[in-house]
Amino acid sequence: LGLALEPSTTAAYESHLQSYLAFCANHGFPIEPTSDTLSLYVVYMSHHLKPTTVGTYLSGICHLMEPYYPNIRAARASPMVVRSLAGMKKLRGPQPTNRKRALTREDLSTFISNLPNNPSLDDRLFIAMLLTGFFGLLRLGELTFPDNTRKRSFKKLTLRHTVSLEASRFSFTLPFHKADHFYAGNTVMIEALPNSPLDPLTHLRAYLMLRDSAFPLLPTLWLTAQGSPPTYSWFVSRLQRTLGDSVAGHSLRSGGATALALAGVTDNAIQAMGRWSSDTWRIYIRKHPMLL
């Protein structure tokens, strides 16, 4: 039962529960989750978070407290709580979403042109990850290790032996992604761009040459000069060092999806290439529909 949730989900749920327990302690309420207590929690938290986020918090609270309070889901579904949440959504109104901008091919060219004459392993690693993530529509979390050690799982790391290099493309096995709850794995295939400075195959070969020379026995594909998997902050800090804080982890995936949409690739193809299980991929397109 303990393995049903991913470590990252468990950590998030525990954070949600701590916010509820702190709310009860600060206001002198018993921790038993009644409809009244949950309703007051919704109103209080909606003044600090988006009401939609508070709804997500309630899910985590219900999951962790249900073994001790079997009636918590009935309290969560009560008219008092449901209407309190709906009322706060109306009262607070639609909250603006501050999404980071998508990467563009011009951004990629900037990084390529800034490469030193004799790139280090870390330089080659960053460029290879950047182009692989962009053209493979990968989440940054599928390329890096979480900064929070509790959320790390070696089962999610891509392995070096799964990489297949061909003349016009390369592929590797992605052991896990957000829509793959049982580690079935997916093959990511990326086409080469011959004679282009942005060719992901050329830069991956250059990285693998240094990586295999430095760490021939280590199993994971992506390795820094220290022989460890790159962390999320390691990648984002290098990204923002050049482009500023207008970009972040999601800029990689949204940039690749937007580039495909601008190139006229069909919706179904983009969804399949990005391994989206629903049409939520549309929020990754950072261009107005009239411009596509």
Automatic annotation (TrEMBL):
PROSITE patterns: TYR_RECOMBINASE (PS51898). GO terms for biological process: DNA integration; DNA recombination. Residues 98-292 form the Tyr recombinase domain. Keywords: DNA recombination, DNA-binding. One of its GO terms (molecular function) is DNA binding. InterPro entries: DNA_brk_join_enz, Integrase-like_cat_sf, Integrase_catalytic, Integrase_recombinase_N, Phage_Integrase-like_Recomb. This is Tyr recombinase domain-containing protein.
